[in-house]
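Sample intake sheet
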Amino acid sequence: MWKNKTTSSISIFGLSMGITCFLLLGTYILNELRYDKFHAKADRIAYVSLNYQSPNDKEPVRSSVTPTGAVPSIKRMFSEVEDGTRVYGSSSADNPAVIKYGDKIMNEPAIRYADSSFFNIFSFDFIAGDASTALHRPNAIVITVSTAKKYFGEENAMGKILEIDGKAWSVTGVVKDVPSFSSVRFNMIGSYQTLARSKTEAWSSANDVSYLLLKSPDQLPVLQQKIDNWINQEFADARKAGYRYGFSLEKLTHVHLYSKVASSGNITYLYIFGAIAISLLIIACINFTNLITAKSAERAHEIGVKKVLGAQRGQLIRQFMLESALVTIFSLAIGLLGAYLLFPFFNQLIGINLSLQVWKPEWLIYGLLATFIVITLISGIWPATIIAAFNPINALQGKINKSKRGEFIRKALVTFQFCISLLFIMSTLIAGQQLRYVQTKDTGLDRSQVLVLDASKFNTNRLVTLKNRLLLAPGISGVTASYDSPVNVQGGYDLKSEGESNDQSISITAIPVEKDFTRFFDIKLIAGENLTDADIERVLLADDDKKEYSFILNKLALNNLGWTPEEAIGKAVNLNGRKGKIKAVVQDFNFSSLREEIRPIVIFPEYNWFGKLFIKINAHTNMAQQLASITTIWKEFNPDIPFDYHFLDQEYDNLYKTEIRTSKILNLFSVCTIVVSCLGLFGLVTYLTQQREKEIGIRKVLGASVPAILRLLSMDFVKLVVIACIIASPIAWLLMNKWLADFAYHIEITWTVFLIAGILALGVTLITISSRAIKAAMVNPVDSLRNE
């Protein structure tokens, strides 16, 4: 190892880099796979989702939330269910609650409410309080350790009173912070029975996330069948009219990676990362193998002498396996240290806090041991077998003929390395193009320069007054509000036509808005007019029977109803009991992730409750000054509510956070595969130029130029890269087409991606080869031809 410093360094560094990447990616994969498995009863917990379909719907609509009556009814009806719980409220930063304690006033984004059975089903570790009774009484709230420190410092939180949106809540428990690998997240969780919605078991208000605790994990399919039969009987009349309604059960431990309605991860990406991790190790092993076999001739005399002195083939194989094992041990130590040092950078890149502690100690030990054995065998067995098979007489005479089979295998391994590298380069380029596409695509609404604030604490008059005040400020071109984010509308409704000879009904997404919503977001009108003050006055009438709504539908909704835009204007419709007429038709626009096709949507004014306030800032104003101005106005109207804001583009990007994270990982480890491949190529070229030193000298004496010698040394490797590109291109096309199929709207893969990847790989290869080939070509032929 010390004598052949270049070979040894390349082997150890390449293997170390492969092991470091393997540990980083392995830790990420393990973290994804352990989601929700820390709950003691995880194998018996079922997640409940809702699906429904109206007569004119082409496909059923699936929802992650269920009505308030779902869990209580299922608990009563079916003996397979031991317990159940409903969880209400968002775990994200949407619509935060205002928390007061003493002189502290903060926005708290992750407050949720759950039935008293919550802590019987889920295993969250209590620091203080009793899990069995913590949520049994009204206005009881359980908080995490971090939340307790934020409000109470080092004081005992138990029994303390927090004012949440003007109501007093008593702390009845403190739990450890929710693990990052939990799909059930909260900072505070209050008793569900405190909410007015807990008093009725409704079937029309689907806003709860529901979970069931089964008596046995094997009973989930049986329970699903029984629920299906029960729903069919319960809604038999509706089924005859063409309506479909039901609940789907999924294992809690499958939700994160597999759920079609609630997944926050993607099992496909884990396969990709696993392939990257294994490929990097294989490439590093190939480097080591190629370098050892290429230098086998240098060890011919050593093998010959040992064989003459009685060494058996098995002894020689063990010797070379031991050498391989030593290289692997050094590489494992450096790789383990590298992973430990690089975790902070890796965490910052992917936005998750990971460390080697994700691994159980025994798993890490067994994993490292298995890695050691596999790498030693892969990188050592073939070179050891080849070298140990040398004929001792030929070896001592220096008559070691180059094996054509060995040369072919070496070239095949180099080609394989570049196939893997090119595959990752092509995948990275395509993934980057798709992300740029979703981030820049015209989705039918203008979300640029839009500031988002919490509007849930405003009544109608205060909202209108604040809007008028903001519009007087310079640099603000528009103000509006809505219940949901316009880039991720969730509400599910039923829209019925009225007064027609053939009344129709469709399932539809709906969003309550302030009157200037469509103008603010520049949603294009096809027919009719935007909302006016008169429309709002009719909605705000005290007598519900006299209220009349004005609805704005998108073109797709009209297609489902069988109307043209001109026919639709003035038609009477009913939206979950809200009666009114269609006032306008707008062009279809994306109001959710581009993974989903555009769905029917209705926009309607309803001032009872808004979730978000939107402020459009002129592009050419000073952002810092503009924010300071808005802050001042906000404090005039809301002195007790913190000014927390974000931009609408951030909400849109959050829809693709999994894809963005995947793209970052692909970028990083694509570079790693190229570096490791080029390290092996550098070592191989270094050795081969040394072997051809006299040939190069003779060619120079006969008049060969430096470019000609460079071409001679590089042409074989250039051919291998071209072959690798031909092999990798169709594989990349197939894999990335499958990935793009997850998006309803995506790019088309063009031949230019493969050309760019090939040119990039070829350029890197030539640079790697040239660094050694030029040096060899510049040597004075007198020095290279001198007889030792």
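Comment: The mean pLDDT is 86. The chain is about 50% helix and 20% strand.
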